């Protein structure tokens, strides 16, 4: 691998369509700053170098980690290419080898917000599927009274 095509670890965010995703990348890898505990959100696309059959078979989940190759062109909106998705075993190996970015030792902001919402909200805000019939359960007391 060339020095220009260094692979970077990122955390997958929101899918944007057309095989494009937002990815959180540590600031020290993008801006060459010394602060490696924060990250920046960039737009990447699922591997241009991948075959179309591999693209359709690749499953990308929010919050999963991936390898990225940045583009050298600043004129385009897409920051880089998602080369591969890291498995749980890959993550463990990176943590043991001290190549793990400090920005990813903390929980991502999306998961913090969802945890707070779950704690604060009740069941009243749950989504109700209008395509399903609502089941009305009758109590067993009425059946017992009729049988007596």
UniProtKB/TrEMBL annotation:
**GO cellular component terms attached to this protein's record:** nucleus
Q: What segment(s) does the record annotate as region Disordered?
A: 98-148
Residue ranges with Polar residues bias: 98-117
Q: Where is the composition biased (Acidic residues)?
A: 137-148
**What InterPro entries is this protein classified in?**
EIF1AD, NA-bd_OB-fold
Q: What is this protein called?
A: Nucleic acid-binding protein
